[in-house]
Amino acid sequence: PPKILFDCDTGIDDAMMLLYLAAEVRAGNAELAGVGTVHGNIDARTGALNTLRVLELAKIDDVPVAVGADRPMAQDVHYALDWHGGNGLADLDLAEPQGAPTGEPAPAQLVRLARENPGELTVVATGPLTNLGAALLLDAELPKLVREVVVMGGAFDHPGNVTTHAEANVWHDPEAADLVFAAGWPVVLVPLDATHPTAVGADWLARLAGHDSPVARFASQIMEWYADAYTPTLKRRGAVVHDALAAVLALEPELGEYVERPVRVELRGELTRGTTVWDARSLPASDDRRPVRVAVGSDVAAFQDRLLSAVLAL
Ligand code: BDR
Ligand code: CA
What are this entry's molecular-function GO terms (predicted)? Predict the structure, then answer.
């Protein structure tokens, strides 16, 4: 099974992604080599504690969780508490985790695991890309050692979700994102264009709420809170579980539709800093960057089913 390293800012949809992956690990369909956390939805340390809480709830207690960068490379830190709650998990009153972060910085963990498993590691990143950017600066050979990098981030034809054009994970650290898109390793990018059409609705939430297990109750509580936050944007009851789509496409790429295009991040624009820009022109190639595989659609029913089945299986 694929060896996954997660890098996240746990966060409600990151938590749902962790539950999905935990079910796949238990089913023998994936191996979780480690998790790194980064500033984003909340601070990196709270993100690590939330990650441990979610993994422990899913009865996974043997995965190293490393705290990473607590601020972006070249700007101030911002959190997304309105979307995820003051503690990142819907303001639920959660017990302290049993386990603790390892003490190794997340970028160093990424480099170490890539060196220990050359050509085998799939990195799934669902927060700002500061840890990945820092790891690229630590080890210039990293792009050759990693099998694939799947990133939830960016917006192309879809509007942004922080500014008119910028998506949160890229907007939180544009310099780091640009390093990741320029590094030459195989990147799959899952932008808002792909995630928004997968929004779960009232029926899905009701099916989740109808199941009585500790994991399902937790998932239902955080998802109802998230739906309260999302409903005005969607104009119907529902929520976009962005990060879970990246994890599902990492394990089942055939559920996505893709285009291959060089991607750059706008680093200077007054109105557009943090925007992802792809080159959609046809030949001749106008960019020497390795094209990124950008997801532009997915099998929505299959995705929603994978996510619900995973939570119910735990
Ligand atoms: C991304 O931003 C975060 O708030 C979510 O967890 C997701 O990773 C969506 O733009
Ligand atoms: Ca996230």
Answer: hydrolase activity
**What is the rounded CA–CA span in Å between residue 205 and residue 1?**
30
> Which of 84, 193, 242, 243 is the catalytic position?
242
pLDDT digits (tens, 9 = 90+) for 26-58: 999 999 999 999 999 999 999 999 999 999 999
How far, in Å, CA of 15 to CA of 33, rounded?
Answer: 17
Model ipTM value: 0.98
Confidence label for 288 from pLDDT (cuts 50, 70 and 90): confident
Å from CA of 14 to ligand 2 middle: 5
**Residue that is written with structure tokens 């990741």 in the block:** 180
Q: Of all protein residues, whose CA lies closest to atom 4 belonging to ligand 1?
A: 41
Confirm if 251 and 29 have CB atoms less than 8 A apart.
Answer: yes
At residue 218, the 3 state secondary structure works out as helix
pTM greater than 0.95 (yes/no): yes
Residue 178 and residue 185 in contact, taking contact as beta carbons nearer than 8 Å: no
